[in-house]
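Each record in this resource describes a single protein on a pair of labelled lines. The shape at a given residue is found from the number at the same position. The record below illustrates this layout:

***
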Amino acid sequence: MPRSKITAKQEAAAALEKLRPEEAAIILIQLLDKHPELKSEAEELATQMMSAASIEDVAEEVYLEITSVDLEALNGRAGSHSWGYVEPSEAAGELLTEALEDRVDEMKRSLELGLLAPAEALCTGIVQGLYRARDTKSDGALGWTPDFPIEEAGFVVEEFLKGCRPSSRKAAQANLIQALTERSPEWAADLGRAAEQVTRDPS
């Protein structure tokens, strides 16, 4: 093989290794669009990475993340600032939302890649972690916004279903609500309503 071709391949390989995660995700989307026969294999690999055991791991991490936003962090966000006054409850909600942003973004990325099973596992884990935190006594941010867990859970369910392809949304809703009813029974009705709202009005 000519040396120029070897060099070109080496350069391409080096460029691939240097891709940022978001760039690699875009390339994966394009590859799956061009080669739909690879989708099932990609989803199987992703599902292996996000197994049922990982749902428990996500739930535990979410629980720790929102229950560990302490009073010091809240005091740093609430109160008087150069731009105005921030209510403690508002600051608490902002801090807790920020604590979960990476997890929610990870779920959305999975949906963008067409990887429904791992996205559903992430959604289930996030909601389960919030459910565990619902009655936690906290001197930190959670104590200032006790409704955050159920409100955020509804938001996460809505974001999951909005990210699903219309053709698979109904089935995804049924699977998700079944899983959440088992793992967060006291919230089943509220989360069911949040899901129904999306399927009625997905915009």
Remarks:
- The chain has a mean pLDDT of 85.
- The chain has one domain: 51-200.
